[in-house]
Amino acid sequence: MAEGSTILQGAVQSNRANRQIKFIVGGVIIALLIVWLVVSSISSTGAYYREVGEVLAQREALTGKALRVSGNIVTESIIYDAPTLSLSFSISDPADSTRQLPIHFHGVQPDQIGRESSSAIVEGTLSPNGVVEANNLLLKCPSKYEEYEEIQVQAVQ
């Protein structure tokens, strides 16, 4: 009987060692999976912030890549087709208004897009024909609030 208990005791110890190894291997796999998910989500949604002039200068290198572009909206270029929700317009470089980048966006037209001196941040991909196919369109806050702050400061003085 002493021999039987020794054999069972060895089997129990090896079973515990197998469980610990399985637990460690499982933990490492889960940790690697989490790291892979974080890295892949950051790389797929990460986009560099660029000005219009930078995009025009690097057009070939940026074609087909995710990017984020900021510029002033050229109000004369806005074309919106409500039935198809197709919005096309151009944004210009703040430093040089002659440098313009065409944008195409499928979605509802923002209310403030036609306002003079509006600025936009566009996220999307640059197509081979030079048009940014936008996934996301954000308008910067209008400057009318800055005027209000100036009036407040002058009133205090």
What features would you describe in this structure?
The protein has 157 residues and is an alpha/beta fold. It has two domains: 1-45; 49-142, OB fold (Dihydrolipoamide Acetyltransferase, E2P). Helix content is 43%, strand content 31%. It contains four helices and six strands. It has helices at residues 2-45, 52-57, 59-62, 144-156; strands spanning 49-51, 66-81, 86-92, 100-106, 119-126, 132-139. The longest helix is centred in the N-terminal third of the chain and has 44 residues, at 2-45. The relative contact order is 0.12.
Q: What is this structure's SSE topology?
A:
Layout: H1 2-45, E1 49-51, H2 52-57, H3 59-62, E2 66-81, E3 86-92, E4 100-106, E5 119-126, E6 132-139, H4 144-156
Parallel strand pairs: 1-2, 4-6
Antiparallel strand pairs: 2-3, 2-5, 3-4, 5-6
